Amino acid sequence: MDIDKLIARINELSRKNKTVGLTDAETTERDELRRQYLDNFKRNFRQQLDNIKIVDGDDEEGIKH
Fold first, then answer.
1. Is the entire prediction scored with pTM above 0.90?
2. For 14-20, which contacts have Cβ atoms below 8 Å and span 24 or more sequence positions?
């Protein structure tokens, strides 16, 4: 699922929960969508960390951790 659609659906379910409440199926869906969002966030964050290159003044190439 596209991340924008995922967030939109999570927000839709959140608003509904605050007004009229959610069915058991909607609660399960919300929990699964939140898990997907967090998994995606963690994966992207890990990729960013893996691509960080530390450079000090003595080493032109830098040190990749």
1. no
2. none
Q: Write the pLDDT tens digit of every residue in 18-51.
A: 999 999 999 999 999 999 999 999 999 999 999 9
Q: Identify the three-state secondary structure at position 53.
A: strand
Is 62 part of any domain?
Answer: no
What value, to the nearest 5°, has the Cα angle with vertex 11 and ends 7 and 28? 90
Helix ranges restricted to H, the chain: 3-19, 24-50
CATH number for the domain that contains residue 26: 1.10.287.540
How far, in Å, are 27, 43, 63 from residue 50 at the CA level? 35, 11, 12
**Predicted local distance difference test score (pLDDT) of residue 61:** 59
- Asked, for residue 17, whether it belongs to a domain, the answer is yes
DSSP bridge partners of 63: 54
One-letter amino acid at 8 equals A
